[in-house]
Design brief:
The complex is a heterodimer. By secondary structure, chain A is mainly beta. Chain A has no helices and 8 strands. Chain B is α+β, with helices and mostly antiparallel strands. In chain B, β12 and β13 form a beta hairpin. Classes of the chains: A mainly beta, B alpha+beta.
C-alpha cells in the first residue's frame, strides 16, 4: 500500500466534492470537480484506491499542481 | 429617441472594448463597468465614466443585476449594451433595464424569451417554414417514453439542455444503452449551468458544418441579412475559427436561404441584431439549430466583408432609426474574412490556463485587426472565459486571408499563460481547411494527425 497524491490539473476553484473520505474508488473514479474559466475539470483517482484525505473544501481556490486529495492504493 | 444620451456597457474584456469604441465614434457618452479583477484595464479609459460593480466572481459583478441596475439609475443612462455572454440573453434582466428607464440594446425581451428556450425556438422556426432537423420536445415522464422519443428520431442522438447555449451540457448517445445515462448527466449539467434541468433530443448530424446568418432588424418592421459565416472549426462545441463567406457552398442556395430567413423574421417582427444558426449535413441539407438574440463573438468577419459597423448599426436600430438610414442600399460580400480566437488554454488538451500575461504583444500589422481586452502584465483570472483576443483578417481571396492570419498569429507574442496559437496554426495550415473541407470534427481530426506526426 502506498500513498498517492491527487493534484489539480488547472488553476481555479473546487466546485463539487464527489467522493467521501474512506470511500474506495475505481481507477478513473471522480474525486472532485474543479471549475475554471467556465469549464468543469474532474480530478480523478487515476489508478484507484481508498480516499484517505481531502485537502480542500468546496469553494476553495486551487492552483495547478496543488495536492487536493490523498489516496491509498 | 433619435440618439442615446448615455449608454452603459454591461460587460468586460474584448467586447466591452469593442462596444465602447463604436459608442465613442458615434459621439455617445458611455459608462464602463468593472469587477476588481478588471480594475485598471486599459479599455476602461475609452468610456467617459467607469464604475466598479463588485468583486471578481462573475455572479457578484457582471451577473450582478442589482449592481448593474444601480449603475443605470445613478448615471442617468438611457441605454444599456449587454455585449455577449453574461446577461445578454436574459429576458428578465432586459425587462428590468427597461423598467429602470433605459433601453436594452437588443431585441425586445419577448424575443429573448422565445429564442432562449431551444425547443420553443425550434417549434417557432418550424411553424414559419424554416428547415428544422428531427428532434423531440422537452423530455418528461419515464425511461420508456424517453427511449421511444429517441427511437422516433433515430440514433445517434444528441441530448441538449433546453435553456442552454455556448455548447455547454450537450452529450451524444449512440445507442439506447447510452441514452438514459446521457440524459441524466446532461440534465444535471443543465441545472447547474442554466438553472433548468430541462433537456431534449436532437438527431446527431455526422460531420456537420455550422453555418449562421447575420440578421439586423429595426423597430419599424424592417429586417435584412448580412450574409453568412462558417463557424465549423470548434472544440467542445465552441467556435475557434470563423469566416465569411462560407467556403464551398452554392452561393445561390446560401443567398436564397439568407433571404428567406430575413423575410421570415420580418414577418415575425424581429427588431434588432440576431443570428440564425444552422447545421449543414454531408447531404448539403440545412437545419435550424438556434437563434442568438445578441451580437456574436464573430461579428467582426461580417463587418470586414460588408464594411458595416455592426455595433453602431445595432445601437442606432435600438434608438429607433430605420435600416434604410443605417445601412447602405446594397450589402455586398466583398473578399474573404477570417477570425481566429486566441484562448488562454493548453493547445493540446484545451484545458484552461489562467495566469499572468508576462509578455502580451498582439500583431501590429495595419492589415490585421485585433479585438482584445487584455494588457501586458495583467492577470488572466479563472473567473471568466478564456478568450484573450480575436485576430481578424480580410483579403481578396480565402487563400490570402489564411496566409495573412497565419502570419499574424506567428507574430503574436504571449508568455505567462499557455495559449492555443499552435493549435490554430495547425488547423489553418491543414490541407482540409485550406481546401474548405470544414466540419465540426475537423479540429479533433487535425490534432490527432499532429500527435501522430
Amino acid at each position: 500500500m502506498s500513498k498517492i497524491e491527487a493534484k489539480a490539473d488547472v488553476t481555479g476553484s473546487v466546485w463539487k466534492i464527489v467522493a467521501a473520505v474512506g470511500a474506495p474508488l475505481e481507477a478513473g473514479g471522480v474525486i472532485m470537480i474543479l471549475e475554471s474559466m467556465k469549464m468543469e475539470i474532474p480530478v480523478l483517482a487515476e489508478d484507484g484506491g481508498t480516499l484517505l484525505e481531502l485537502t480542500v473544501a468546496e469553494g476553495d481556490a486551487v492552483s495547478e499542481g496543488q495536492v487536493v486529495a490523498v489516496l491509498e492504493g | 429617441m433619435a440618439k442615446f444620451k448615455k449608454v452603459v456597457v454591461a460587460n468586460r474584456g474584448a467586447v466591452a472594448a469593442r462596444v465602447l469604441r463604436s459608442l465613442r465614434a458615434m459621439g455617445i457618452p458611455s459608462v464602463a463597468v468593472y469587477s476588481d479583477a478588471d480594475a485598471g484595464a486599459s479599455y476602461l479609459s475609452l468610456a467617459q465614466e467607469a464604475v466598479r460593480i463588485g468583486p471578481a466572481p462573475a455572479r457578484e459583478s457582471y451577473l450582478n443585476v442589482d449592481a448593474l441596475l444601480e449603475v443605470v439609475r445613478r448615471t442617468g443612462a438611457d441605454g444599456l449594451h449587454p455585449g455577449y455572454g453574461f446577461l445578454s440573453e436574459n429576458a428578465v434582466f432586459a425587462a428590468q433595464v427597461e423598467a429602470a428607464g433605459a433601453r436594452f440594446i437588443g431585441p425586445s425581451p419577448r424575443w429573448i424569451e422565445a429564442m432562449g428556450h431551444k425547443t420553443r425556438a425550434r417549434e417557432l422556426a418550424a411553424e414559419h417554414g424554416m428547415p428544422v432537423g428531427r428532434g423531440s420536445a422537452v423530455l418528461s415522464g419515464d425511461a420508456d417514453s424517453m427511449l421511444r422519443a429517441a427511437e422516433a428520431i433515430g440514433y445517434p442522438i444528441l441530448v441538449k439542455p433546453a435553456s442552454g447555449g455556448g455548447g455547454i451540457g450537450m452529450l451524444p448517445a449512440r445507442s439506447p444503452q447510452e441514452l438514459l445515462g446521457a440524459i441524466e448527466r446532461a440534465s444535471s449539467m443543465a441545472q447547474r449551468g442554466f438553472a433548468s434541468a430541462e433537456v431534449y433530443l436532437e438527431r446527431l448530424v455526422d460531420r456537420p458544418r455550422h453555418v449562421e446568418f447575420q440578421i439586423l432588424g429595426d423597430r419599424h418592421g424592417g429586417v435584412v441579412h448580412l450574409h453568412e459565416r462558417d463557424c465549423s472549426v470548434q472544440r467542445r462545441h465552441q467556435k475557434l475559427i470563423e469566416e465569411s463567406p462560407a467556403p464551398g457552398l452554392d452561393r445561390q442556395v446560401v443567398g436564397a436561404l439568407a433571404e428567406r430567413i430575413a423575410q421570415t423574421l420580418q414577418t415575425m417582427g424581429y427588431d434588432n441584431i440576431g443570428t440564425v444558426e444552422m447545421l449543414v449535413g454531408l447531404d448539403g441539407e440545412f437545419s435550424f439549430l438556434e437563434m442568438n438574440t445578441r451580437l456574436q463573438v464573430e461579428h467582426g468577419v461580417t463587418e470586414e466583408v460588408t464594411g458595416v459597423d455592426l455595433v453602431a448599426a445595432q445601437v442606432r436600430s435600438a434608438a429607433g432609426e430605420r435600416l434604410a438610414d443605417i445601412l447602405p442600399s446594397t450589402l455586398p460580400c466583398n473578399g474573404h474574412a477570417i477570425q481566429a480566437r486566441v484562448y488562454a488554454e493548453d493547445p493540446k488538451r484545451f484545458f484552461p490556463s489562467p495566469g499572468r500575461l508576462e509578455v502580451f504583444v498582439p500583431p501590429s500589422d495595419p492589415d490585421v485587426r485585433v479585438e482584445c481586452g487584455y494588457d501586458q502584465g495583467q492577470d488572466v483570472t479563472p473567473h471568466y472565459d478564456p478568450l484573450l483576443a480575436k485576430v481578424i483578417v480580410h483579403a481578396a481571396t480565402r487563400g490570402e486571408a489564411i496566409d495573412r492570419l497565419m502570419k499574424a498569429l506567428r507574430a503574436f507574442r504571449i508568455e505567462g499563460v499557455r495559449n492555443n496559437v499552435p493549435a490554430l496554426l495547425e488547423i489553418l495550415d491543414s490541407p482540409e481547411f485550406r481546401a474548405g473541407d470544414v466540419h465540426t470534427g475537423l479540429l479533433a481530426d487535425v490534432m490527432k494527425q499532429a500527435v501522430r506526426a
